[in-house]
Amino acid sequence: MSVQGSLAGIRVVEIGTSVAVPFGCQILGDFGAEVIKVERLGTGDEARMWAPLTEGVSVTFLSLNRNKKSVVLNYKADEGKQALEELLQTADVLVQNLRPGALAAAGFSWENLRETNPRLIYVEMTGYGHAGPRREQPAYDAMLQAYSGVVAMTGSDEGEPARVPLSMMDMGTGLWLSLGVFDALRRREQTGEGAHVQVSLLQTALAWVGTPLMGVAAGGPVPQRLGSGFRGNVPNGAFPASDGYVFLSVGSNDAFYRLLDAIEAPHLRDDPAFENNVARVSNRQYVNAQLGAATAKFTMQELLERLDAAQVPHSAVNTLDRVLEDEQVKALGQLQPIPHATLGDVTIVNSPLTIDGEYLAHQNGPPLLGADTVDVLASVGIDEGRIDRLLADGVIETHTEGARA
Amino acid sequence: MSVQGSLAGIRVVEIGTSVAVPFGCQILGDFGAEVIKVERLGTGDEARMWAPLTEGVSVTFLSLNRNKKSVVLNYKADEGKQALEELLQTADVLVQNLRPGALAAAGFSWENLRETNPRLIYVEMTGYGHAGPRREQPAYDAMLQAYSGVVAMTGSDEGEPARVPLSMMDMGTGLWLSLGVFDALRRREQTGEGAHVQVSLLQTALAWVGTPLMGVAAGGPVPQRLGSGFRGNVPNGAFPASDGYVFLSVGSNDAFYRLLDAIEAPHLRDDPAFENNVARVSNRQYVNAQLGAATAKFTMQELLERLDAAQVPHSAVNTLDRVLEDEQVKALGQLQPIPHATLGDVTIVNSPLTIDGEYLAHQNGPPLLGADTVDVLASVGIDEGRIDRLLADGVIETHTEGARA
């Protein structure tokens, strides 16, 4: 069972590649919008070529492009420009993340488009934002993690800075742009007018670091790297098992004593470095090393059972293969099959919310490059003869067997 | 200048603490909703007590609770329960993250509330989700980072796993719940009926790891820790300077040769380990160490200038004090002052989008505990005599000088 999102009947045109805009538009598609992805000739979205591939298809592309249609069109050719203009006349939303200024240079600026479609919501995503000396520079997720302070804070206190190995700036920007679309649609119902919504990786990044940044702005210390730990609480973090790691968190001395018994290290209770949280924080490295020597004598499974019995808050430090097999993950039903034209069913992760107990409905699996070129252009009133000419002139492409998926 | 969000006129009641629900409701407030935060007697939201404090006020609380009103009310007392019922009669949205089942046990289940207010949108946030063996267990951000595979993937390949030092599960859940509210409001306009929206840290976490999880589900390798690096590309990551780190990324051999010249290490060109990306990936640690020895001879500023001149994509690995002083960050205007009753203006990070070039408008700064108790209850029709009795009976509290902010 599934539930239909509220964006059914809303047409979104995506002119975007990579992660942020595809993820944001996938969210809109999950909520029911018709999302038409306009891709370039030959290769399409860059992410279609990113490793790892499964049977020749990019997993990254698969994970970011369900519930979309694919139209391949060269809008720099005159006839293609005309066709895109006609498509955009029928659109409620345009979302784009081309190089700053590139789409405007091709004739599709917000100012131009609003003249003919004043109800259009024009969403523009950049790396560094709409103003400032870097506004025209390209950027990508990891670079903005570095720029915004995330890399400097992440990783072991004794080692090098680390990256968050997820596209948190890209995906976060996708979330914010989808919120911007919902807001603009609601405003349009009130005013009849579209809007120019701008988002960027840097602005998203500043929102992510908002709390610690406000702490520094208020005169507090600059956060340092602490591995898996927390500034004011020890022990709290990942501790080694013989076959992996376990995360545990101790908020009181009572819980701490229960932990020491559970890991058969009651003697540590007499060490003054362990006396209370203040002492443990002061002796962080020593305390964590002593506890780690004790936890490493057990397997993950043994530790999890012992911490459970001792009522010490904990979690396995799961690797992704364990996540896939986890009973709780399975029970939630968020990992779902979706059909793909060449792969059969692929497993996707649905948007993480339920409505009256049901996940959002799927429209279709990730499209092959150009799978919907003809159908979409026909639906906006471009007749068969013109479509044939566009095909013959190489201005549009449809999917052909053996071509890149 | 600023722009009014589209949720003006929507009343949200927040019964939540800590990060996820407060952040989600702050987003709704940024978009113009009236957000009434119902807090418990004496202490209010737990985050009001979290370190670090600035002049006795929690920075975390300040960062998550602008554009809200604070009402202090004990809904477990009969008169308080009655008052909350009257408040919820006037609400469009209720968002809560109490222990699973706790609010229902107090009489405020979705099933009860929809009987008297069928237009109510009831949003419930938990740690592990609405189903499965862990559905009643408490959880928090770092624990779900561990559970979902993020901790195992983060940190140096030679060291211990690390945490993402930001509340990405909490804040992500806040983003998803605010999307759920926009969707439910739109559906309500279509159907006249409210909805039961459920979100959780675990479901949010699965969406964050969606791409690599799909890779593993498709039979690919389980991602390993790579510090600041990337699996298929070397060099790409943080490299040491004499006074910090610089992030750089090299996508071609041409760019690699420019890098070697820029860091005065052209001799590395002749080392077979550096021959091309495939060789560099195979010799990751050696290559990174050799390059790091060269970059460490320069200051951050020198490296940034040299990489700029050589057109090698790069970024400073900024610490948060540098972020605050950064010209691009200042130019974006996203860090803004907001008034606070005891602190004067505090600097907040506005929601990361602009609409027709303007950020969302502020309604008010983070409220003192109980600052709006009387005004809000009066606004739903509770008369002065009854408010006085509620105060006298200790069922509600207003802010008093010297009390916790």
TrEMBL record, chains A, B:
Keyword flag Transferase: yes
InterPro entries attached to this UniProt entry: CoA-transferase_III_domain, CoA-Trfase_fam_III, CoA-Trfase_III_dom3_sf, CoA-Trfase_III_dom_1_sf
Superkingdom: Bacteria
Pfam families: CoA_transf_3
Keyword Transferase: yes
One Gene Ontology molecular-function label: transferase activity
Name listed for the protein in its UniProt record: CoA transferase
Organism (species): Microbacterium gallinarum
